[in-house]
Amino acid sequence: MTVLLDMKTVMILIVLGHLFSVLLISAYWRTHTKDQILSKFLLAKLTQGFAWMLIVVRNGIPDVYTMSIANSLLFIGFALETVAMLRLMQAFNRSAKMLYIVLTLGAIIGYLFVIVFNNHENIRIAEASIGTALIMVVPAYFMIRSKAASYIMKLMGLLYIFTIVSLIGRAIVALVSDQTIGMFTPGIYQTFTFLALFLIMFIGNIGFVLLLKEQADQELIRLANYDDLTGILNRRTFVSLSKQMIDEYAKKREHLSLVLFDIDHFKNINDTYGHHIGDRALQQLVKRIRSMLRGTDSFSRYGGDEFAILLPGADESEADRMVEAFRLATTQILIPDMASSLSISLGVVTLIPTEQTRLETLYKLCDKALYDAKHNGRNGAARTRSVSLPG
């Protein structure tokens, strides 16, 4: 059975596909923050849609004009779409920007060179296919090779690779064929071309939406689990993780330590220098202490300027060493526009938990130790001795 397609109808469907993509993205864009990722993808779809429309209605207009403009716009549209994808993956930097300027200009100049010096449709098809394939290589590489790539991203990368292979195959067929072949010439090549074009549009439109949703989901997870100012765990997530860790170490019969601390005279810092300096102090403090923690430790902003750290496996000696290191490191933090240095007061409790041990009880004991540290003159630590808690 031979499957032949009316390519003008296919082209109109492709134009409509880009048009509906623009309409849907525009509706989304109106109700969300106007960012560069969405705006570039929207511009890419508009550019590609206009280019395909120009190809459809080119009857009576010399190819040297319509195909030069249309394919140049397609190269620009594909490049803008790829840049939007790379921005979505946080893989777009100065080097990538320069690369895409070079690739896009190279593809356009190469195509115009063919138009002027060797204007055969087979050669035009080969150059356009190779130029488009080169533009798609970088996102395909990042989607496949990135360590942080999700399953959706890896699947997108495989589809990109399949499309690149299809484009290269299209170029080879065009170069080795003895007959003049074209997009509007009935035959198997025409069907193959349609499938390649449809796949490019499908990957671009559906893939972008899926990656955008995945990014939004990840942002919701971050907002639900992490403190927005400091980037460490929020109280709810810390409590949940700590309860799991207490149960685990109760089964292992091993030590763990809980540390509470806050910044000495933090209210005076806000009142004297302003809340923006207070926020900067919190951020610098968190950055310094987080760099000193082990991979198993949990660090949370418990509320205001109060922080909590759970140290699994740390006995009294290890916990005291780490707490003193936190205190000394804090005194070395310099905040611009702030005359005095920071200091913290810390409360510590260490124990081998049992099945009856509750985080609420640990917190109360640790909070009392923190109060003792403040009562003793601040810029120091106090602890509740190792105990086995009934609950």
Describe the protein in words.
The protein contains 12 helices and 5 strands. Strand 2 (298-303) and strand 3 (306-312) form a beta hairpin. The protein has 2 domains: 7-225, Rhodopsin 7-helix transmembrane proteins (Rhopdopsin 7-helix transmembrane proteins); 235-387, Alpha-Beta Plaits (2-Layer Sandwich), CATH 3.30.70. The protein starts with 6 loop residues before the first helix and ends with a strand. It is 66% helix and 9% strand. It is of the alpha+beta class and 391 residues long. It has helices spanning 7-30, 36-56, 63-88, 94-117, 121-145, 151-176, 188-225, 235-252, 266-273, 275-290, 316-331, 359-375, and strands at residues 256-263, 298-303, 306-312, 344-351, 381-387. The radius of gyration is 31 Å and the shape is elongated. The protein has a 5-stranded mixed β-sheet with strand order 2-3-1-4-5, sandwiched between helices.
